[in-house]
Amino acid sequence: MAAVVVTLGGVAFRDFEMPAEILFGGEQRLAVHHPVGGGQVIDVLGAATGQIRFSGTFSGPDAELRAQVLNAALDAGTTLPLAWGGFAYQVVIASFAASYQKPWWIPFEIILVSIENLVTALPTALAQAGLDLASAVGFDGMAGVPLGDLSISNPVGIAAAQVNLAGVVSSAGSALNAAVTSFSEGAGAAQPIAAMSVLGSVSSSLAGAAAAQAYLGRAIANAGLGAL
Prior knowledge:
Layout: E1 6-8, E2 11-13, E3 27-33, E4 41-48, E5 51-59, H1 63-76, E6 79-84, E7 87-98, E8 105-117, H2 118-121, H3 125-137, H4 140-143, H5 155-185, H6 190-223
Antiparallel strand pairs: 1-2, 1-6, 3-4, 5-8, 6-7, 7-8
Helix pairs in contact: 3-6, 5-6
């Protein structure tokens, strides 16, 4: 089962929902002068705000809810944290377009405007680690693992959180596989409906635990805590 690597606000993109590519970048504002006699002088005016684009498909029992969350954030102009891999931004949704095909299958495209690059804006790796721990704590409800006491000064607590999250990922993965099998092999309506309910709750736990794991791993690396 693939780990969640993209989170936007409280929305996690899991398994095959993860975008095949994320387009990001920007431009440097330049004033180019051509003085008499030839040559040129370039004044560097600073980076312009860039856009981040990706597309994907919401799937599963909570597809509608997650699509509605992003649509509401678009309407409100809410500032959201965006993270994937080693990247972290504060963004605002500039455009969100979804295609409602089934309650459990909603393709979408999204364009975000970067307000701040949280990685380059941080003065130290230790500050980055603190931000990542805070982000991990934000997924404790989804993962079902209490993470409220995490801090760089408490490596024992971080290690315990790692163990608990690994347990959630392992058990959720097994339950998810069992539910998929039950759904595909079920006769009549009762068994597939029950399996869909399990798929929704277990997928949410798996997404939250995997996202928290990713943030903890980067926090440990940036704080120089080594392999806990």
